[in-house]
C-alpha cells in the first residue's frame, strides 16, 4: 500500500468516455488542470445540490467528461467548504480550521461550473425543479443530491443549539470543532471527557475511534490524570478492531475507558450529565448509569437531510434513513432523474469522503452515458481508503475495493480481495502518517481543483 497506489486509487474503473486522463497531480504534486472539451455533442442541464466531497467532485467530472454542452449548476449553502477529514487534528492543535478550507473558485473558473451560493429548500420530482431558500427555482434534466447528512437530537435534548453552545458533536467540521477544542483546553487536569458513538451506519466508521485515540494522546501529554470514557452504542469496535483495541488497552491504558453496548438514554446539556444503559454479551451490566464529565462530546445518530425525506427519496427502514440508489448510476430507486451520492445515499459502501468522490465519478460517468444514449457501465469498481491517526505522529489505514455484483445489485468486496474483507494496516507507523498527508492532499485536489 504505497503512495503511488493511493494516488492511483482515486481513479475508478471507467475508460473515460472522452479518453481524458483522470490524474490530477504531476510528479512534483502540482495540480494539473485538464481542459473541458467543447464539442462532444452531448447536452443537458444538471443541478447539483451540495458542494462537499461528493457534490464538488460530480460537478467537476460532469463538465470534464460531458463537455461544455452539459450545463452544471452547483448549489451550495456555504461560501466555502470545511473538510471533516483531518478535522480531529484541530482538536489537538495540530491543524487550524482555516487549513481545511476549500473554495469553489477552480470549479467555476476552470471547469465552467455555474455556482450558486444558496440553500435548496425543496425538490419537485414531477416538475423537475428545485426551489431555493429566499426564492427562485432551478429546472433540471437530471438532479444530483449530495447534501451530506443531518444529526438527530440525543435523548433529553430539545434544540440543536445545545450542540452549538454546550455539548458539540463536531461531526461536521466548523464552529463546533473549535468549541470542542476550546473546551478541551479549558478542562482542568484530572477531569474527564465522555465521547458517545451512535449505532452504525454513521459518517466515517473509524472516525470516532480515531477521535478517542487523538484525544487520549493529547490528554496524556496535556492533562495528567484525565481520562476519556467512550460510550459505544455498537456491541464492539466496528472497524480496525485489532488496531483500536491495542490502542485503547495498551497505549492508552488508564486513559481510555471503552464501554461497548452502551445506549445513551438522556443527556442534560446544561449540566453535562449523560445517562446510559450498557449491555455486554446479552447481559445488562449498567442501568441508568451516569457520568458527569468536564467535556461531553456526543456523536449523534445520523440521517439523510429532511429535503430528501420530503421528496420521497428515503428508505422505509427506520434504522437506515438514507436514500436507496442504483449503484451503477446512483439514480434513486424511488424517483427517476434524481441521483443521490455521498453520505445521504444508502449503499453497502462506507459513508466516507473518499468513497463519496468515487460515487461522484461513477455518477458523472453514468449521467454522461444517459445523456448521450450510451449503455451503462456494468463493471463499476470503487475504492475506499481511510487513514487514522493513532498518535500525533503515527497512523493506521483501512482500505477496500468494491465491485458491482449483478446478482445482488450492490457493491461488494470481491472474494479475491482479502477474502472479501477490507484490509487494515498491521500497526500504526510514522510512514503511514506521512502517506496520510499525501492521500489527503490528493483527494482534496481531485475534488476541488
Ligand atoms: C472527524 C471526521 C473524520 C473523517 N475522516 C475521514 C477520512 O479519513 N476519510 C474519509 O474518506 N472520510 C472521512 N470522514 C467522512 C467524510 O467527511 C464524509 O463522509 C464526507 O464529507 C461526505 O461527503 P458528502 O459530500 O456526502 O457530504 P459533505 O461533505 O458534508 O457535503 C455536503 C454539502 O452539502 C451542503 N448542503 C447541505 N444541504 C444543502 C442544501 N439544502 N442546499 C445547498 N447545500 C446544502 C453542505 O453545506 C455541505 O457543504 C470524516 C468525517 C469526520 C466527521
Characteristics:
alpha/beta; 449 residues; disordered N terminus; globular; 5-stranded parallel beta sheet; 4-stranded parallel beta sheet; 27% strand
Question: How would you characterize the overall build of this protein?
Answer:
The protein has 449 residues and is an alpha/beta fold. 26% of the residues lie in helices and 27% in strands. It contains 11 helices and 26 strands. Strands 5-2-1-9-21 form a 5-stranded parallel beta sheet, with helices on one face. A hairpin with a 5-residue loop joins strand 23 and strand 24. Helix 2 packs parallel to helix 10 and helix 2 packs across helix 11.
The count of strands amounts to 26
Strand content: 25-35%
Task: Output the radius of gyration.
Answer: 22 Å
Strand order of the largest sheet: 5-2-1-9-21
* Largest β sheet strand count, sense and barrel closure: 5 strands, parallel
Task: Tell me, rounded to a whole number, the average pLDDT.
Answer: 93
Topology summary:
Blueprint: H1 3-9, E1 44-49, H2 53-66, E2 70-76, E3 81-82, H3 88-91, E4 101-102, H4 105-109, E5 114-117, E6 120-124, E7 129-132, E8 137-139, E9 142-145, E10 150-151, H5 161-165, H6 175-186, E11 193-197, H7 207-222, E12 228-232, H8 241-251, E13 256-259, E14 262-268, E15 273-280, E16 283-291, E17 295-298, E18 302-303, H9 306-310, E19 323-326, E20 331-332, E21 338-340, E22 345-346, H10 353-372, E23 381-389, E24 395-405, E25 410-412, E26 423-424, H11 430-448
Parallel strand pairs: 1-2, 1-9, 2-5, 9-21, 11-12, 11-17, 12-13, 19-22
Antiparallel strand pairs: 3-4, 6-7, 7-8, 10-18, 14-15, 15-16, 19-20, 23-24, 24-25, 24-26
Bound molecules: flavin-adenine dinucleotide (FAD).
Amino acid at each position: 500500500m504505497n503512495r503511488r497506489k493511493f494516488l492511483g486509487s482515486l481513479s475508478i474503473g471507467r475508460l473515460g468516455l472522452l479518453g481524458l486522463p483522470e490524474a490530477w497531480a504531476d510528479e512534483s504534486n502540482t495540480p494539473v488542470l485538464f481542459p473541458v472539451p467543447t464539442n462532444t455533442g452531448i447536452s443537458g442541464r444538471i443541478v447539483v445540490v451540495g458542494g462537499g466531497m461528493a457534490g464538488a467532485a460530480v460537478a467537476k467530472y460532469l463538465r470534464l467528461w460531458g463537455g461544455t454542452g452539459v450545463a452544471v449548476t452547483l448549489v451550495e449553502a456555504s461560501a466555502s467548504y470545511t473538510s471533516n477529514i483531518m478535522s480531529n487534528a484541530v482538536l489537538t492543535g495540530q491543524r487550524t480550521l482555516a487549513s481545511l478550507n476549500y473554495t469553489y473558485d477552480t470549479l467555476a473558473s476552470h471547469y465552467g461550473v455555474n455556482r450558486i451560493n444558496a440553500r435548496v429548500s425543496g425538490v419537485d420530482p414531477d416538475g423537475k425543479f428545485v426551489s431555493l431558500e429566499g426564492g427562485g427555482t432551478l429546472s433540471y434534466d437530471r438532479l444530483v443530491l449530495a447534501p451530506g447528512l443531518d444529526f438527530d437530537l440525543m435523548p433529553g435534548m430539545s434544540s440543536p443549539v445545545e450542540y452549538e453552545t454546550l455539548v458539540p458533536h463536531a461531526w461536521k467540521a466548523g464552529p463546533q470543532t473549535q468549541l470542542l477544542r476550546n473546551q478541551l483546553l479549558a478542562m482542568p487536569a484530572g477531569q474527564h471527557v465522555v465521547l458517545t458513538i451512535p449505532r452504525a451506519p454513521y459518517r466515517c466508521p473509524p472516525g470516532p475511534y480515531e477521535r478517542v485515540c487523538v484525544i487520549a494522546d493529547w490528554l496524556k501529554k496535556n492533562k495528567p490524570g484525565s481520562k476519556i470514557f467512550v460510550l459505544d452504542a455498537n456491541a464492539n469496535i466496528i472497524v480496525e478492531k485489532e488496531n483500536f483495541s491495542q490502542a485503547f488497552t495498551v497505549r492508552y491504558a488508564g486513559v481510555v475507558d471503552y464501554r461497548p453496548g452502551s445506549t445513551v438514554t438522556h443527556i442534560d446539556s446544561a449540566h453535562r450529565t449523560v445517562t446510559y444503559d450498557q449491555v455486554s454479551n446479552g447481559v445488562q451490566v449498567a442501568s441508568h448509569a451516569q457520568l458527569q464529565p468536564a467535556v461531553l462530546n456526543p456523536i449523534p445518530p445520523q440521517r439523510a437531510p429532511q429535503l430528501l425525506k420530503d421528496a420521497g427519496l428515503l428508505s422505509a427502514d427506520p434504522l437506515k434513513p438514507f436514500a436507496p440508489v442504483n449503484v451503477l448510476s446512483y439514480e434513486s430507486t424511488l424517483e427517476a432523474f434524481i441521483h443521490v451520492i455521498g453520505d445521504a445515499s444508502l449503499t453497502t459502501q462506507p459513508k466516507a469522503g473518499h468513497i463519496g468522490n468515487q460515487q461522484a465519478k461513477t455518477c458523472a460517468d453514468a449521467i454522461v452515458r444517459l445523456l448521450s444514449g450510451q449503455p451503462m457501465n456494468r463493471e463499476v469498481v470503487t475504492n475506499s481508503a481511510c487513514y487514522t491517526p493513532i498518535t500525533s505522529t503515527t497512523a493506521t489505514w483501512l482500505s477496500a475495493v468494491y465491485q458491482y455484483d449483478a446478482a445482488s445489485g450492490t457493491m461488494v468486496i470481491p472474494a479475491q480481495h482479502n477474502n472479501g474483507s477490507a484490509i487494515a494496516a498491521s500497526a500504526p507507523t510514522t510512514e503511514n502518517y506521512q502517506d496520510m498527508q499525501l492521500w489527503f492532499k490528493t483527494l482534496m485536489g481531485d475534488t476541488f481543483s
